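debug: dumping io for the single-chain case to check the tokenizer round-trip. Nothing else runs in this session.
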Amino acid sequence: MTKPFLFIISLLLSSHIAFSQNKVSISIDDVPNTRLYERDIYKSPLLKKLNALALPIAIYINEENLYKTDSVQLNIDLLDSWACQDFVTLGNHSFNHSRYSQVGLDSFKTDIIKGESRTRKLAKKYQKALKHFRFPYNDLGKDSTQHFHIRNFLREEGYQISPFTIESSDWMYNRVYAYYLKQNDLNKAKQIGQAYVTMTLEYFDFFEKFCLEHYGRSVNHIYLCHDNKLNADYLDQIVEELKQQDYQFISLDEALEDPIYKQKDAYYKKWGISWLYRWQDFQKDRIKSMRLEPSTKDIEDLFKQINNKKDKAY
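debug: decoded output
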């Protein structure tokens, strides 16, 4: 057996070992939640818990949130308190969370640039990079033309698109959870919180099995969730459960070192599906895979019922 061949085998084995342990990067969209901040008497329980957990996380900022309450300066200070943390990677999530497929290229480009106004200053202040962009709704465009043009624009602006592999519809669970809290139905709220934890762990298990089937190994996962009341109360429980399963929590940049993220995105529609599906070559394969996911019908039904009520909860 030749030395070059032995070297290749050794490289492949070391690569397999490097990505065989379960690893995940936590990413949080729609930071900062200033309406929640105001209701919590200008404290951020989620940030406090993340400080205690000392995990690397990535946050995706909607700067419009700074102006959604009357306490603009306090909101700016809140964003600063996120950005200053050593464990936080900064990302742009556009200014006002618009859907790219609906507003079109020119409007969305403006939204991206406007969305980095304060964030770029904070990045400079704390000597951090601002190179990650996540699409609102993970809507990369309605067709291949929109995909092509926005990718080129982001590349020119020095951004790379932030993917995710796992999400568990925390925004739906949060809507129902917040509603029950507002109704002072703490038992039902707790049931929803625990259901969120259980479903999230089921999704982790599902996508781990998916990766073993399709790639023959575990991958560096990226979990997508949001700055909301539900995660302020339950994200730490999810983290502890994953630790019990020997997950290692890594930064976004480390997660992206996995060669899996170098694959071509072959999905040219607007829906915000996992990148594990986007990398599949054929739509029929995506549909087949997605039909095997854990069912969220129960929370979807509750979400629809509550969303039709006049009494809105955040």
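debug: round-trip ok. Residues 1-17 have pLDDT under 50 and may be disordered.
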